[in-house]
Each structure stands twice: as structure tokens, then as C-alpha cells.
Design brief:
The chain is mainly α. It contains 25 helices and no strands.
């Protein structure tokens, strides 16, 4: 949706990117030690290519010959986290920490593992003993650990402490509001989210979702709908449109953003993963979104973010599997299936992509975007007649034709032209230009086609 994430998120992103650079330098120095060169070089190449399955296997093999090499352990750990193989990652993280490693990634995995086990007392003790994920997020994780251990006041104090740091106040107050809502204090949560308690907070998607639920719990559905319109405007994504319909029907929305302290920690990791987008390597940012998934398997935004990172990393099969974990009854399911179809096609499984889109279209026959995506996929496969049929079905569902449909007309025109249906193709090209005057792709295609004719 493109909502701003706030100044605190930007600070987090820059600091985490710097930490990554320093860590990578140290890791490279260790990896250049002699021994097990063959396994190491193959594993290193797999890492460069983001081939996480091969990297996990090859670094594990290298550890068989050099079992105390922490660099190999960390690289294998990172690969397992990228694969969402959390049990294998936990074993390596424990091994690293037991043998004296001060790895940030091992600490991240260990923190998530203890939270998943519900051992918040041990987790709080670990932080007190010196466990560190990062100076900018530790206080938030400590806050949720204290809440999980039954020290709610101590958790709020941790959030207040980080709120005093320059640039991090909105981030800390957001988590304090989540904690209040988790505890059932919707009035306290709304006082923070509205800005009445500590001043206004920057607009962002996760804050909007939380406040909408809180307002609904306070029997203020009209205010919740007004907040959606204020922040997101009239063009709502699937999630917000779904919530708006439920609010309009008078339904009391449950607060589901944090129903367990581990979910609060998931929010910390997810926010960092989002903030790192474009500021750090996608392979590093992916670790944060994967840990958010581990801590809250129902965190659909984390699933979609992980899938997006995996697609950009060229791991299309893993992206497809991640999209496939979005529940069928989730508002984001259609978005996830469209993403899965793209990932399947990019992985060379075009027929599987077509089948996924056909099944999705049967389940949701009134959604034009599905038929458009099907047309795009078939057009790339040069199945022109099927593509033009899909585009026509998409256009037939449009209540009114506006500028946003220019590409659908253009794409159908291409399919028609390849089918030797020139009159229909020219009409579509000209309609595309009417909707988007002087569009260079359409003008070039139409111009060259006319020359050929």
C-alpha cells in the first residue's frame, strides 16, 4: 500500500545495514582460514547464488570436517532460516552459543526459539546475561519477554525507555499500544494510537490495522472506517476492503495483531524486515521476515514480505511455497495466489501457473485481476487465442472503462495481432491510446504494425 513507516524505522534500517557490513567483514576473515577448501568453495558459491538448499547441505558437510568453524555454522544457520527450517536452525544456533559464539543471527534464532517454547523467564534471563540481537531492537524484545514472563509493568517500562531515544519514539509507542490492547486495555491503546497520550504517531499500515481493531472493540466502527479512509484513501487493498465491509456490517472486529507475547516479538522482526527493504541485502532482510513468520505463523504480511524477498533473490520455488502458506480464507489469499503464479512461471513451471490461475478464477469468477494475470501468463507462453479470451473476460467484468485498463487493451491487441485478427487488434491499440495518450509502447507497436501492413 506504500504507507510510510516513520522515522524510527529509517534509523533501524541504517543501523542494521551497518551492523550487517561489519559482521560480513568479520565472517569473511574467518572463512579465509585454510582447510576444507572444496566444500567451502562450493558452499560459498551456493550462498552467492542464494541457493539455500545447497548452501545448507554444503556448509553442513564442511562442518563435518571442521566442526568448530563458527563462520560455517552461521552460514548454515542463515540458510536454514531462509528455508524456514527452524528446528535445524535452532540446533545450530544452540551449538554456536554453547561454544562461545557472539553471532547476532544465532542470538536472533535463539530468542525466537525460547519465545516459541513459551520460556519467557529464561528469555528475560538471557537478555540480562548479555544476549543481544541489536541495540535498537533489544529493548522491544525485552519488553515483550517481560510481558510474557508476567511482568507487564516491566514490559511497559522497557517500551518507555526506548521511546526516549531520538527517532525511536513512534516505534516504541506503537509496541506499547499493542501491549495495552493485548492486555485488554483498549482505551489505553487508543489513547496512544490516536496521539492523545503522547502526541501523534506517523501513519503506517500495521498501526492502521491495530487502531481499526481497537476502535471496533470500543464500539466505534464509524470512527474505524473514517480512519481507514483518512490513512489509505479510497483505493483499498484486499485486507482493508475486507475490514471496511465487516465494519460497515456492524461487526465487532477482534484484536488479532498480538494474541501472544511471541506475536509482539514477531511485530518487532517484521518491522525491521520492512525497514531494511532497500537498505540492506535482501538475503539479510529475509532472516527478519522469516523469524516474524516463526513467531507468528498467521502473520500474513510477513509471509508476503518473505515471498517478495525470495522472488527478488531468484528463489522462485521457495517463494511459491511461501505464498502457498497464506490461508485460503485470508483476504490476502488472491494476492498470494497471483504472486504464486508469477513465482511458478519464473521457476519455469508455466503450466502449473496457468492451472493455479484457472482454479483461482473458478473460485473467484468476479475478480478481473485474476483473468488479467491469466491473460498475461498465456501471452508470455504465446498461446494467443487463450490470452485474448482471458483479457476479454477481464474487461467484461469492468463496471466502467478508465485509464487503468489501457494495458489490458494493449495486451489483448498484441494477442489479436498475433492471431491475425488485425481489425480487432488495431481497435484495441487505439483504445489503449485513447485511455493513455502518447503511451510509447502502444505507439511503437501500432506504428510498426501499420508499416508491416
Amino acid at each position: 500500500m506504500g504507507l510510510p513507516e516513520g522515522t524510527g524505522m529509517q534509523v533501524l534500517a541504517r543501523s542494521a545495514a551497518l551492523a550487517l557490513a561489519l559482521f560480513a567483514t568479520n565472517t569473511m576473515a574467518q572463512e579465509l582460514a585454510p582447510g576444507v577448501a572444496g566444500s567451502y568453495l562450493a558452499a560459498r558459491q551456493a550462498s552467492v547464488e542464494n541457493d539455500y538448499k545447497a548452501a545448507a547441505r554444503l556448509y553442513t558437510q564442511a562442518l563435518g570436517r571442521d566442526p568448530m568453524n563458527h563462520a560455517h555454522m552461521e552460514n548454515a544457520l542463515s540458510a536454514y532460516l531462509a528455508l524456514a527450517e527452524y528446528d535445524a536452525a535452532a540446533v545450530l544456533a544452540d551449538r554456536m552459543l554453547q561454544t562461545g559464539s557472539r553471532s547476532q543471527i544465532a542470538n536472533m534464532s535463539a530468542v525466537a526459539g525460547e519465545a516459541m517454547a513459551g520460556d519467557y523467564a529464561a528469555l528475560s534471563a538471557s537478555f540480562e546475561a548479555g544476549t543481544r540481537v541489536g541495540p535498537l531492537v533489544d529493548a522491544l524484545l525485552i519488553g515483550w519477554a517481560k510481558i510474557g514472563a508476567g511482568d507487564f509493568a516491566g514490559g511497559l517500562t522497557a517500551f518507555d525507555d526506548i521511546a526516549e531515544r531520538d527517532g525511536l519514539r513512534p516505534f516504541a509507542l506503537h509496541h506499547k499500544a499493542l501491549a495495552q490492547a493485548y492486555a485488554g486495555n483498549m482505551e489505553g491503546a487508543e489513547a496512544i494510537l490516536s496521539g492523545d497520550a503522547h502526541g501523534p504517531l506517523p501513519d503506517n499500515r500495521r498501526g492502521l490495522l491495530a487502531r481499526v481493531a481497537v476502535l471496533s472493540q470500543l464500539d466505534r466502527n464509524d470512527d474505524a472506517r473514517a480512519e481507514i479512509e483518512r490513512v489509505a484513501g479510497s483505493e483499498l487493498d484486499a485486507t482493508l476492503a475486507h475490514l471496511d465491509r465487516r465494519l460497515a456490517a456492524g461487526e465487532a472486529l477482534p484484536f488479532v495483531e498480538v494474541t501472544d507475547p511471541a506475536h509482539g516479538m514477531a511485530e518487532v522482526f517484521y518491522t525491521v524486515a520492512s525497514a531494511l527493504d532497500g537498505e540492506a541485502a535482501d538475503s539479510y532482510s529475509l532472516l527478519y521476515s522469516r523469524l516474524a513468520e516463526q513467531l507468528n505463523p498467521g502473520h500474513v504480511d510477513a509471509l508476503l514480505l518473505s515471498a517478495e524477498y525470495l522472488e527478488r533473490l531468484g528463489r522462485h520455488e521457495l517463494a511459491s511455497a511461501t505464498y502457498d502458506r497464506v490461508p485460503r480464507d485470508a483476504p490476502e489469499f488472491i494476492t498470494a495466489e497471483l504472486g504464486r503464479a508469477d513465482a511458478l512461471r519464473a521457476a519455469g513451471r508455466s503450466e502449473a501457473a496457468v492451472e493455479a490461475l484457472r482454479q483461482l478464477s473458478k473460485a473467484h469468477p468476479d475478480v478481473a485481476a485474476i483473468k488479467t494475470k491469466l491473460g498475461d501468463t498465456l501471452r508470455r507462453m504465446k498461446r494467443w487465442d487463450e490470452a485474448s479470451e482471458a483479457y476479454s473476460a477481464s474487461l467484461d467484468l469492468q463496471a466502467e472503462i478508465d485509464e487503468t485498463q489501457w494495458f489490458t487493451f494493449f495486451a489483448r491487441g498484441i494477442a489479436y495481432e498475433r492471431e491475425d485478427r488485425w481489425d480487432e487488434a488495431e481497435a484495441d491499440f487505439r483504445m489503449a491510446l485513447e485511455l493513455r495518450p502518447n503511451q510509447p509502447q502502444v505507439m511503437n507497436y501500432l506504428g510498426y504494425s501499420l508499416v508491416e501492413k
